[in-house]
């Protein structure tokens, strides 16, 4: 799974959110180390929706703007659990490499 998809699913695991909220969450939680461009975010959201990992419904924000609210599905939660395991293995391997290289 691509890192962006993992970040999106992880963000939505905390609850439904709209595109800008997902971007803001990722940037805030990462302390500004990770940024997401709209040109990458929305194609990933559409792909995840098409694959059944999330749903999207139109809503009106408190500011009165229309926005799509993305929600993680049961299939998305399973996919997230698998991706967490895979990422943990990747991080472990990279840490080993950095120690001994």
Order of helices and strands: HEHHEEH
CATH architecture field: Orthogonal Bundle
pLDDT < 50 runs, ≥5 residues: none
> Judging from the principal axes of the Cα atoms, what is the shape?
globular
Strand content: 15-25%
Structural class: alpha+beta
User: What is the CATH superfamily?
Assistant: Winged helix-like DNA-binding domain superfamily/Winged helix DNA-binding domain
Query: How is the main sheet built?
Result: 3 strands, antiparallel
Secondary structure layout plus pairing:
Elements: H1 3-13, E1 17-18, H2 19-29, H3 38-50, E2 54-60, E3 66-72, H4 74-100
Helix pairs in contact: 1-4
Overview of the molecule:
There is one protein chain. The model has no long low-confidence stretch (mean pLDDT 94). By secondary structure, the chain is of the alpha+beta class. The protein has one domain: Winged helix-like DNA-binding domain superfamily/Winged helix DNA-binding domain (Arc Repressor Mutant, subunit A, Orthogonal Bundle). The longest helix is centred in the C-terminal third of the chain and has 27 residues. The chain has four helices and three strands, in the order αβααββα. The protein is globular. It has a three-stranded antiparallel sheet with strand order 1-3-2.
Summarize this, please?
With 101 residues, the chain is α+β, with helices and mostly antiparallel strands. The protein has 4 helices and 3 strands. The radius of gyration is 15 Å and the shape is globular.
Which keywords apply here?
4 helices, three-stranded antiparallel beta sheet, Arc Repressor Mutant, subunit A, 3 strands, 101 residues
